[in-house]
Protein: serine-type D-Ala-D-Ala carboxypeptidase
Organism: Ornithinibacillus massiliensis
Amino acid sequence: MRKCWIVLILIGLIVTSTGCSEDNYPEDVFASYLSSWEEMDFEAMYGYLSKQSMEAIDKQKFIERYENIYSGMNVSSLQVESLIEKKEKEMPEQDSITFDFRVSMETLAGPIEFTNKATLVNEENDRGKGWYIDWEPSLIFPSMEEGEQVSVQMLKAARGEIRDRHGSGLAINAKANVIGIVPSKLGENPDESKKRLANLLDVSVEEIDGELNASWVKPELFVPIRTLPIGEQDLQEYLAVPGVAIQEKVVRTYPFGEAAAHLTGYVREINAEQLSELQDDGYTAGDFLGQIGLEFIFEEELRGNNGGHIFIKNADGSFKETLAKLEPVPGKNIQLTIDAILQAEIYQQLSGDAGTAVALNPNTGSVLSLVSTPSFDPNAFVRGLSKEQWKEWSENPDSPFLNRFTNRYTPGSVFKTITAAIGLKTGVTSYDGVRRIEGLHWAKDESWGDYYVTRVHEKSSVDLKDAFVFSDNIYFAQEALELGTDAFLKEANMFGFEEEIEFSFPISPSTLSNDGIKSEIQLADTAYGQGEVMMSPIHLAAIYTAFSNNGNVLYPFIIGEGKRQVWKKNLIKPDIVKNLNKYLIQVVEDPAGTAHGVFIPGMSIAGKTGTAEIKSSKDDQNGTENGWFIGFNSDNPELLLTMMIEDVKQRGGSSYTISKVRDIFEFYRQ
């Protein structure tokens, strides 16, 4: 016995329970083998094999075969149990014995369960005398024979589509032509072929070489280079290049491209880092993942659940038998309240500018468009994004990837409607009250030093209607100072400042100040939307729904069928709403009104302009201005539009924005 143990130590056997002792029962050896199997310790399993089995398959191939099959099937919850009837053990007289066992496991194609038989032989080999497993491929799966293989096919779930209120596709699955190369067919001059293809696809030869040098590439395999929409190119010019081939497949497609890029977002193939984080959620290599926008926000609903097919192939590669099959479950389709045609029109109006626009139905709060410019083509991330294009977008100072409709900005004079509502509610302001204001500059007293509030229209007697029509900063500054900081903040915060808005896109709360209003000067500036006030265009649009809903502020929403939900009930009294509406209409209809450029004969539009100054100090001559407009068609409210364009200082201020707004209202009423 001692000699036997010395032999075992010298040859480094992993399994010490087999061989050497004539007292080893086959049941014990079999139980240890099944235990190693259940733990997926394939190296230990190999140590139990008979001499003949080891001669038929070497250790490395044995381990790799099990590992490849089990990892490919994504095996989990593996259970391997003996079906040997429990009784007092007896050493068999014969040199072989057969035991029954059961295997169950979860796989990517669903559960697999089977019963099988294993034969153990009693032999003496270089590991000693004992019982060993007489292994054959059927132990993996009962019907499997030598030369056959287990094949795993992932059945990809179709991603849910995103469509607008009328069913027009914003993010859909559409056929496309994949242009690629079969390396072995590049011909006698592969460099020339790659150069010709690079010119046709408007990519660099280096990018093509990068794809061809991937680790998985083999001479006979198709290597995709770029994806093209169906019907947009003459494919013959591609096929004329040696080595080029074309495959048709379904890819994620964004029909409205740049016009809806920040709204829809885009998908990209999952990378290694993302896969390591998400593989427990069912993601596998080759899956596509929403990166930004609605593709990211609704990833869980859109992606669906992949299925799988696990089957045995004959030695000649033909299908033999299905082991498990799970049909894929397609992702959920999402219908938006967005009007894609309006979305495209607003994008065209903003094209060439850095800005944003939010349009919604003021009666329901349903969002009709969310536009941010400049933009990018989301299709490029699916079909192939060149380094040059990425560099151009990344280095653009106007930041095409910045989503401006979720960002926050200084609102300027569009904020004055809030100040007016507060003044009327508290009694500081009356409809017929007049403020005596001289000149274009005003400071409360000497304590303000050289700081003053300015206005652009000189009028000595200013009532509330005049203050709206001429957008008089001084009037609203005086109004807030009379009210006082505490009372002003108390009333203003009721409009949703410092609150999270329940909306599909995450939006940072709007704020009235960074850390409280510290002075009368800051309070005065806050009253007309300057100071430290920061608002999102979506929040601003939501506040103005009060003027179409008798003082109730509605939640904006982008998913659903037009169900109206009140966010701020009775925020503004009905009589105040009625009168402020009249003033907002005069801002547009009065020839002296700051928004008269929006006036459309036969259409009543209530609106407010704003020119927000963006500068480091009062005397900063290098600052810029953002031009704002917010308004709605008041006679038959169907469209409430908020628009902001950056850097309008040398382009007419908010007047530059107004011309675009007018065209959109004209377009919408057609």
In short: The first strand starts at residue 76 and ends at 82. Residues 313 and 320 are 5 Å apart (CA to CA). The mean pLDDT is 92. The radius of gyration is 36 Å.
